Amino acid sequence: ATGGMVDREWPAQLNRLVWEKRGGGGNGRAGGDPTSSSPRPLVLSVGQVVPHEVMGMANFNKNLFVGTGGVEAINLSHFIGAVHGMERMMGRAENPLRSILNYASERYLQKELDLWYLLTVMGTEEKTGELAMRGLYIGNDIECYARACELSLKVNFTLLEEAPRRVVVHLDEDEFHSTWLGNKAIYRTRMAIADGGELVILAPGVRQFGEDPKIDELIREYGYTTTARILEAMGRSKELQENLSAVAHLIHGSSEGRFKITYCPGHLTKEETEGVGFQYADLSSALQLYKVNDLKDGWNEITLETGEKDRFYFIRNPALGLWAVKSRFEEGNYDSNEESTVLPSSSKQDA
Question: Is 173 within 8 Å of 205 (Cβ atoms)?
Fold first, then answer.
């Protein structure tokens, strides 16, 4: 499925509470009684379909295999998505990782579980700025997901005619406390930003890098450098090899040197921010310049102290969408028949 990029087998893992719902009888024991005439217990998977940095498009069987999966499956899935390339993943329902999960669904979930998906597509009302449900899709196979993806790309995907030289993203203070989550600002805008441009991230709630102490430590040690450097470090470090989700996160958080990332964190120092490879700017000064409550989503223009005009693109909540210029999105289209570049042996993961 990965064209030789990753040669470790991906383990299909589910939480036992879900897997025990297979078979008949509903008696709570693993597998139940396959000869029983009683209906199988119903399993409902509820979630939102939206462009996603790891899966291309969120939800469907990801809810099961990643949401209730084991650590090994979760970590390896993140790594597969990262080495395939985020520009080739984001906003695409068809990609190598989804192919793997779809195969596992056909082999295990559809045969063993009475599983139904309830998938929503949410969008922002233009007049009120409030979130509203644009679509609800209910089904037990991939058609349900495919239809939700089709609508999500219309609702949650913004295709720009012009690549902004500067994109300013605001991270809600109550929602984003780490770069692990806050880097959605990078993931969702990277296909829009012009070469040599700048991403400014207003992050009043960010106080750490990882969501747990170990991941935080790894981010501080290795930083958000280029994919090549991170894979090279992984080839030397058993610690990284055992934390593939951290490797994937570091790759996702790099601009690959194509544009500058300026973080304005509320609770991290200049030394800490620059230590992981980002530019630093003082939050209070940035908020004076970019008055969030006065800005509209999309293009804005402000007058600088020098009298010059600063034109930029503003995004209030990066988690709700994906932004790209048409040429860069089309360049990343995935061809399931094409040969992918094989990683150097030092970077490949053996079974």
Answer: yes
